[in-house]
Design goal:
The complex is a heterodimer.
Chain A: E1 18-23, H1 39-48, H2 86-94, E2 99-104, H3 116-135, E3 141-146, H4 152-162, E4 168-174, H5 187-196, E5 200-203, H6 221-242, H7 244-247, E6 253-256, H8 263-277, H9 288-295, E7 296-299, H10 311-319, E8 324-325, H11 348-362
Chain B: H1 3-7, E1 13-17, H2 24-27, H3 33-41, H4 75-86, E2 90-93, H5 105-122, E3 130-135, H6 141-151, E4 157-165, H7 176-185, E5 188-195, H8 210-230, H9 233-236, E6 242-245, H10 252-266, H11 277-284, E7 285-288, H12 299-304, E8 312-313, H13 338-349
Parallel strand pairs in B: 1-2, 2-3, 3-4, 4-5, 5-6, 6-7, 7-8
Helix pairs in contact in B: 6-7
Classes of the chains: A alpha/beta, B alpha/beta.
């Protein structure tokens, strides 16, 4: 059941001290957050749960294909769910692949619960828990500041509360939101990120109440899964067109787990139609592609698979070899093993940039 | 070079022309007494859609506007601006009046019938080069089927038409009788950019800008393709051709690279999809080339990723502003593709074009 089938890598990688920009930690149980939640919210959760914008009380809208979305071999000996056992995470991920830094991306009900005060309390509790359960015990792991982004004022308060703690390498945002993230109601978050020099990790996911397509609700998980990359595309379009990067030119947005082959064609499309409609967006002083090149980074997993694998090189060169960050997505089912992840050849310099150098340049490590 | 010289010898087929309804007053002659009366009494003066704001530069090219600021209202304009100018042999009309936006299904059916009859009388009857789409009142599948049966006998209708952002994903099973009717009558299923505004234009909510909304059509097209594939609508109707109109083109390879990968991972969710999505799409999906959405220097490599020369159909997208002057073929489109893109692919897509004047 937990047998790992190994294949020989096509080329043996040199030792890189990898930086992994997408690791998902889990609670052993919901009670793990209790020490960090006020009694008032523990009581509320016990009675009403964490009411969100999906139909079910305690699950996702579209049933996944793996329990906890996880690799079958990632269930740890502590009996908790995958990603909940630090010792096992060290063994199965950090030590095995010689990962120097790994960025934690907690995905759990918090920033999109409907009750904004509960959302703020949950985000804060998750931040305390990341430090207590992971980063204080393991210096290779770095936390993400979870924020109640639908309430920008509370989100900024949470950023301010955490920014001095160097265990936090970035601010985390979710790609599905109630409104496109470029809209001015979210700008205080971008202002705080730019002010503190913290990158924003925009991770796919979330249930924000809108159908995954502009024609409503599809039937299948595979459609919803594809739609996640659409949420990323629409957020980038929104941030560019609203002038977020004109207003905050030093802002760094890292798009995590959204794929990336769509990015160059999206930039072309925006440029082309901006040429005809720039009168609508006079606040943009450059073509959309210039902001995309200036303010965006992408993580690798899950990478699109061109029918001719070498075409991936063309895509990566269009995005910029300095803008691509390696990610495993551990412990999820579509985990990328750094030895086999790339179907195309990479030069030594390209490998150094993607597996390590680019992340070093964009995240806050010290 | 004169504009028609660019196209010389190709006998081009223009797959996306938009006649624009001047006002509801133009449609009332094609309604029964009850609905004509409703239009007057309720002061329903226009169904112009937000998807194409009349005064926006994109909606009507500046030099194609008439003195009233509107455009594409007469066959004469179409002849002067496109048909005669480029030496078009056949042009396909795709009316975009906002009948799909109507919430009252009875009203929608009445207005859609009037629109289709207006297209027939005011356009098809006035120029032999023209063909058209049957606009579907998808508010009712039953009424859509009736509309197809009512008009399919007129062989100048070569396609049926839906908006990309409608009520529900188009692969859903209750839409399948429409695909069966299309196969039976030799009609293509056209999906055009635009929303019926049943949902926000993005999965993260309503957009602020028209440019943002226009760009979002590409996610709409991708979702519809994902739906048509995963539900089995395409494989169950193997003769059906689906034409994406004003969709953009260059997003397609990246979409396929991801969908095909995910399909490999979770294909047991949809075991009836027994062929790789890329193969299904190459067989059954066609796209018009305005807009194409790539810089001139990238077009050839971007199109090579389609791994098919059969998928692209030329269109002017008149009167939408996709190009200036006579630059109607997207710059960078390889010369060797012109015979297929300008003509042969359209003939292979639209079964009915082989009839009549083109036979």
């Amino acid at each position: 059941m937990s047998e790992i089938l190994e294949a020989r890598p096509a080329t043996q990688a040199s030792k890189l001290r990898i930086i992994d920009s997408d690791i998902h930690p889990s609670l052993r149980s919901e009670a793990d957050l209790n020490p960090y939640l006020p009694a008032r919210w523990r009581q509320h959760i016990a009675e009403y749960g964490k009411l969100g914008r999906g139909p079910y009380a305690a699950r996702n809208t579209y049933p996944r294909f793996q329990p906890f979305l996880a690799r079958r071999d990632s269930f740890p000996p502590n009996g908790g769910p995958p990603g909940s056992d630090l010792a096992f995470m060290r063994e199965q991920l950090l030590d095995l692949y010689d990962i120097e830094y790994g960025i934690l991306e907690p995905l759990m009900p918090s920033n999109l619960v409907r009750n904004l005060e509960l959302g703020a309390a949950l985000c804060s509790a998750i931040n305390d828990w990341q430090v207590a359960a992971f980063t204080s015990q393991e210096k290779r792991l770095r936390a993400s500041i979870q924020i109640p982004f639908e309430d920008a004022k509370a989100a900024v308060a949470e950023i301010d509360k955490r920014v001095a703690n160097r265990d936090f390498a970035q601010i985390q945002l979710t790609s599905r939101s109630t409104e496109p993230l470029g809209r001015p109601r979210y700008w205080p978050i971008f202002e705080a990120a730019a002010h503190h020099g913290l990158p924003i990790g925009l991770h796919i996911g979330g249930e924000a109440g809108h159908g995954p397509t502009a024609a409503g609700w599809p039937s299948f998980y595979i459609e919803d899964h594809h739609g996640l990359s659409h949420s990323m595309q629409c957020q980038i379009t929104s941030m560019v067109l609203e002038g977020v990067f004109e207003r905050f030119p030093t802002l760094k947005i890292i798009m995590i787990e959204g794929g990336f082959a769509w990015l160059p064609p999206l930039a072309w499309r925006l440029d082309r139609h901006w040429e005809k409609m720039r009168g609508e967006v006079p606040h943009l002083r450059q073509p959309p592609s210039a902001y995309i090149r200036q303010n965006l980074w992408v993580s690798t997993q899950p990478m699109e698979e061109p029918e001719n694998p070498e075409d991936l090189r063309l895509v990566l060169s269009r995005i910029g070899w300095d803008r691509v960050l390696f990610a495993t997505d551990y412990p999820h089912w579509d985990f990328d093993d750094p030895r086999y992840a790339f179907p195309c050849r990479l030069s030594e310099a390209e490998r150094r940039a993607i597996f390590r150098g680019n992340a070093e340049a964009v995240y806050r490590f010290e | 070079m004169s504009p028609s010289a660019i196209f010389q010898g190709h006998r081009p087929i223009d797959c996306d022309l938009h006649p624009m309804v001047p006002s509801m007053r133009a449609l009332t002659p094609y309604m029964d007494e009850f609905w004509a009366d409703q239009v007057v009494e309720r002061n329903i003066t226009t169904l112009d859609s937000q998807s194409w704001p009349i005064k926006a530069p994109k909606t009507i090219r500046a030099d194609w506007r008439g003195p009233n600021g509107r455009g594409a209202e007469t066959v004469e304009q179409l002849r002067t601006q496109v048909l005669d100018r480029f030496g078009i042999e056949t042009g396909i009309l795709n009316p975009l009046y906002g009948v799909q936006l109507v919430l009252n299904a009875d009203m929608a059916v009445a207005f859609t019938r009037a629109l289709n009859d207006w297209t027939r009388a005011e356009w098809l009857d006035k120029d032999d080069r023209l063909r058209a789409s049957i606009v579907l009142p998808l508010q009712s599948i039953e009424a859509s089927l009736e509309e197809i049966e009512r008009l399919a006998g007129d062989r100048r209708f070569v396609q049926v038409l839906a908006l990309v952002m409608g009520d529900r994903p188009l692969g859903k099973r209750d839409y399948w009788p429409i695909y069966e009717a299309c196969e039976r009558h030799g009609l293509a299923f056209g999906i055009h950019a635009g929303s019926a505004y049943r949902h926000p234009q993005t999965s993260v909510g309503w957009t602020s800008w028209y440019l943002e909304e226009y760009a979002a059509n590409q996610q709409g097209f991708q979702s519809q393709l994902a739906s048509l594939i995963t539900e089995g609508a395409l494989t169950q109707h193997p003769k059906l051709k689906v034409v994406l109109l004003e969709s953009g083109v260059t997003w397609l390879p990246g979409f396929l690279w991801r969908l095909q990968k995910t399909w490999k991972g979770v294909r047991f969710e949809t075991p009836w999809v027994t062929r790789p999505p890329a193969e299904i799409l190459r067989d059954q999906i066609r796209l018009t080339v305005q807009p194409l959405d790539a810089p001139e220097t990238e077009v050839e490599r971007a199109l090579a990723h389609l791994r098919s020369d059969d998928m692209l159909l030329w269109a002017s997208d008149w009167p939408h502003w996709q190009f200036d002057g006579d630059d109607a073929i997207p710059p960078g489109l390889p010369e060797r593709l012109l015979p297929k893109v300008l003509r042969e692919n359209a003939l292979a897509t639209y079964a009915r074009l082989h009839e009549g004047a083109l036979a």
